[in-house]
Amino acid sequence: EDWMYTGYNALSMALAMPENGCVVACEIDDNYVNIAKPFFKEPSIKCYDLIAAGEAGTYDFVFIDADKSNYDGYYEKSLELIRKGGIIAIDNVLWSGKVVNPAPDDVTSQTLDALNKKLHKDQRIELSMLTVGDGLTIAIKR
After folding, report:
1. Which UniProt keywords apply (predicted)?
2. Structural domains of the chain ordered from first start
3. Closest Cα partner for 92 from 137, 138, 135, 139?
């Protein structure tokens, strides 16, 4: 699952999938959906709650790269969606180093710092943080 934005990550992942694979991209802003639409050969836009639709525990991989203030919520929903052994990748977890001693008025950095600390203690996952780019967390569901 990928929050779509312009569709770049979703398309990159789709190109790496086997023919029987499926990429689900989520976006709530119609402007971004319209930007991405021309790049998809067969756009299939559906609006529904994946968990309510009975898809909990059926996904292999979730990539989170959306509004940082909601990362914790996306993480919790992702844990519901992925199967045991599934992977959640979370982008921008280092936030240009601002997550270390975040400024009192920097809510985004504080939010990411809190999530990083939560993940470090979360017994539901195996955890690794890669220092590539702006930081990438890899969480494997136990």
Report:
1. Methyltransferase, S-adenosyl-L-methionine, Transferase
2. 46-141 (3.40.50.150)
3. 135
Contact at 8 Å (CB) between 141 and 82?
yes
Q: Which residues of 108-121 are buried (b: 16+ CB within 10 A; e: fewer)?
A: bbbbbbebbeebee
- Tokens 């939010």, located at residue: 111
Q: What is the DSSP letter of 139?
A: E
Per-residue confidence (pLDDT) for residue 34, from 0 to 100: 81
Measured CA to CA, the distance from residue 87 to residue 42 in angstroms comes to: 26
In angstroms, rounded to a whole number, what is the distance separating the alpha carbons of residues 5 and 63? 12
Q: What pLDDT was estimated at residue 1?
A: 41
Structure tokens at 66: 């959306």
